[in-house]
Amino acid sequence: MQINLQGKRAFVCGATQGIGKAIAIQLAKLGASVTICARNEVALKQTINELDHSHHQEHSYLCADFSKPDELKKLTEAYTKNFPVVNILVNNTGGPAPGSIVLAQAQEFLSAFQMHLICNHILVQNFTQSMINTQYGRIINIISTSVRQPLPNLGVSNTIRAAVANWAKTLANELAIYGITVNNILPGATKTKRLEQIIYQKAEKINRSIYEMEQEMKNEIPMKRFALPEEPAYLTAFLASPYAAYITGTNIPVDGGRSSCL
What we know:
By secondary structure, the chain is an alpha/beta fold. 45% of the residues lie in helices and 14% in strands.
């Protein structure tokens, strides 16, 4: 089985670091023309230079701040005039700050809801018609294993991630008739800046060293290690391919077996 995405355009959010960047790199290697989206234009330009161009792809970037949904809507509407066809949409946004749900302020939930669910929805509405027209559509949401099993000290994130998962399942059912698939990838502990932040805050809270906290977290994982960003990216590439045409409405964990439920 060889995945070939030549002739496809992918739009990848949060693509200047971590899992999002690994996904953009992987899809470009497989021949897709990739549009990367994030709020830091300098980082976007740097990432564009790291994408594979060997298949004569036309890569691009969109600088957008997901804390401003109305602005994102205008930017993506303008984007579709230059790139009217998007075949693959990867929704990926950095998670809300760690913290107890009891202490969370109402505005934290509203902000996270806008950045994750509302912005995802805006992109879907702007790109879905082109997927219908070309008879090829893949919508892939990078969420979290908290969809299946809430994680300690991630109150806001647990809440919003579950909302996104149920939005995606509903969307999958509605779009299936057009051959458009919608799936959620649930990464476990992955070596990203967000994980570093979580480890630091946990260690500080209980007065442990970062090394001790890291080892404790690894011991909770049957594979005894954190995922590399490339590992969820490989699954994204498969779900984006023609081979995954009959897989939709699913939550697929990439967590080294950490989740205790099936």
